[in-house]
Amino acid sequence: MEKKPVQTSKAPSAIGPYSQAIRIGDFLYTSGQIALNPDNMEMMNGEIEEETEWVLKNVEAILEADGMSLAHVIKTTVYLTDLSEFARMNQVYENFFAKTKPARACVQVAALPKGAKVEIDAIAHS
What we know:
By secondary structure, the chain is an alpha+beta fold. Helices cover 23% and strands 27% of the residues. The protein contains 2 helices and 6 strands. It has helices at residues 48-65, 86-96, and strands spanning 3-6, 21-24, 27-30, 73-80, 103-108, 118-125. It has a 6-stranded mixed β-sheet, covered by helices on one side. Helix 1 (48-65) packs parallel to helix 2. The relative contact order is 0.24.
C-alpha cells in the first residue's frame, strides 16, 4: 500500500523529521500533537485543561485535512508529564469524544517537547 503524507496549515508544522500524519489504506496515523499554536508555532503553556484543548484541536485539524473528524478516531495514546493531572485532562478529552469514545492508552512520561504537559496521537479509520 502507498503511504500518503497529510499536511495542513491549520495544525502545527512538524518540528522534526516527521509528517503531521500518514494515510495508508483506510487508516490515518497522526503524529503526536502538543499545544503549539499553528499560527505562530508558539507553545501555549497553561493549565492541563488549556493544553489538552489545544492538542485536540490540532488533532482535529489534521483529521479534517484528510476529510475525517474525531468520530473516525479508533485509538489514541495520551502522554502526560504528571499523571496526577489525568482527571483534569480527561474532562476536556471527554468533551471532544462525547459521541464516539476511541480505545485509549495513557502513560506518564518524564518530559515532552517544548515543556508540554500533554501530547496525544491518534489512529483514525475512514
